[in-house]
Design goal:
single chain; globular; Growth Hormone, Chain: A; mainly alpha; 0% strand
């Protein structure tokens, strides 16, 4: 049966072999990622149970991309992006196997060390993958490719979280870590088949190759000279100021309020399933409405903030698991759309030679914001004795402020035509 709603995505996968390999690597590795996240969260909750300890786990996952961003951006713009991705996958496979040595409360420190090491390697992966995309996909297909990426991430979140929660609850944490390591190896094989089709990174001059620091500063100067690009590069961070802390809230709901399975791993899996369904459907529906129109994408991002506000308020009123899952669905609907459109807009407007540094900045600001949010929520849970519902109400204020800021940005910049690739490159 023909489904016009997904025709463009099927066509992209069918006719673009290089993107298909990259997409398959995403399908494989992200399935394992959710096994790893649920297993790690369940393990630290079992060994400690402290709000700060749980928050510390997510903080260990968030800080490396921020701290390494100056190096990540330069590496992604200076070296073969495909080789960077392959090396990242293989190194992460080795690190994940070391999680098997965490056996008791005395080993929690090792869990944090390995998490930091794994996410330090991952810090090179996502910005590099995003920067590689325009060399595999025609500009007219970038929104489609990013929407498909977002939907795939969400689908793998739903599938991986469900399977990860089930596997962790039934077979134990060891199985989850073994599966995650295997997926990294298979992902590296698929990326090894990729060959860029379109224009690649422009050759650097001798002066640009003098120091990595000069290249990093050059990326910052580019953002300073292009305020609309800077605003788009901060979109993920504006959401992360609230959603970073939700990691602690979700673990608390799962373990202490609506527990299913060992240490709430089953409940956590259901929460991630709701997140996956929502962030997957959101970009598909939004793209159907906005198409490739840049102006419509800006309005869709404003809608995303409104979705976040409603979702967080509903979390504050959650007295049953079903209502919490509905609140999660509404909250993450906006997150999925905003993520896809912010990435697509950057790929459509930033010259290829700056893409690695811009995406490194984009991910760095997001992880910094999420780290601050996670740390604060963990502290509020332990020191202020705040429940997850109370925290949900407070977090609703963040997207409310950001929505006003985005509306002001739109009012100022819609006086002239929205940023286009030609404007960005020629300015």
């Amino acid at each position: 049966m023909r489904l016009p709603f997904i025709d463009s995505y099927v066509t992209l996968l069918r006719h673009n072999q290089q993107y298909r390999y990259l997409w398959l690597s995403q399908v494989i590795s992200q399935t394992g990622d959710w096994f790893n996240l649920i297993a790690s969260a369940a393990l630290v909750a079992h060994l400690s149970g402290s709000g700060l300890a749980i928050g510390g786990l997510f903080l260990a996952r968030l800080l490396p991309p921020f701290l390494l961003s100056p190096l990540v951006g330069v590496v992604a713009d200076r070296f073969d992006r495909r080789k960077i991705l392959i090396a990242s996958d293989l190194l992460r496979a080795i690190v994940v196997l070391a999680f098997l040595f965490v056996r008791s409360a005395q080993d929690v420190w090792l869990l944090y060390v390995l998490t930091v090491l794994q996410l330090s390697i991952s810090a090179f992966f996502e910005p590099t993958r995003a920067a590689l995309m325009p060399s595999l996909v025609a500009r007219k297909d970038l929104v489609t490719a990013n929407a498909l990426d977002g939907t795939t991430w969400s689908t793998m979140l739903a599938v991986g979280a469900a399977l990860g929660g089930l596997a962790t609850a039934v077979f134990g944490i060891t199985t989850a870590f073994l599966i995650d390591a295997a997926t990294f190896v298979l992902s590296a094989w698929f990326i090894g088949q990729v060959r860029p089709t379109f224009a690649t990174v422009e050759p650097e001059t001798v002066r640009e190759r003098d120091t990595g620091w000069q290249a990093f500063v050059g990326g910052l100067h580019y953002l300073r000279r292009h305020p609309p690009v800077l605003a788009i590069a901060l979109l993920k961070a504006s959401k992360a100021l609230a959603f970073g802390g939700m990691a602690v809230v979700e673990v608390t709901f799962a373990k202490e309020i609506f527990p299913i399975g060992a240490d709430g791993s089953g409940t956590l899996g259901l929460i991630y399933v709701a997140t996956g369904l929502s962030t997957g459907l959101g970009p598909l529906i939004a793209r159907r409405i906005t198409g490739e129109k840049t102006g419509a994408m800006y309005w869709a991002i404003l809608f995303c903030y409104l979705s976040l506000i409603v979702g967080y308020v509903m979390i504050g009123y959650s007295t049953s698991l079903s209502f919490l899952l509905l609140a999660t669905f509404i909250r993450t609907l906006g997150s999925g759309i905003s993520w896809v459109y912010s990435s697509a807009l950057l790929q459509m407007t930033v010259p290829d030679k700056f893409l690695g540094r811009v995406f490194a900045f984009d991910f760095a600001m997001m992880t910094l914001a999420a780290s601050v949010s996670t740390l604060w929520v963990g502290w509020a849970k332990d020191s202020l004795a705040m429940g997850p519902q109370q925290i949900g109400f407070l977090l609703a204020g963040v997207p409310a402020v950001m929505a006003v800021g985005w509306a002001v940005f739109m009012a100022l910049h819609f006086k002239r035509r929205p940023l286009t690739p030609q404007q960005s490159i020629s300015s």
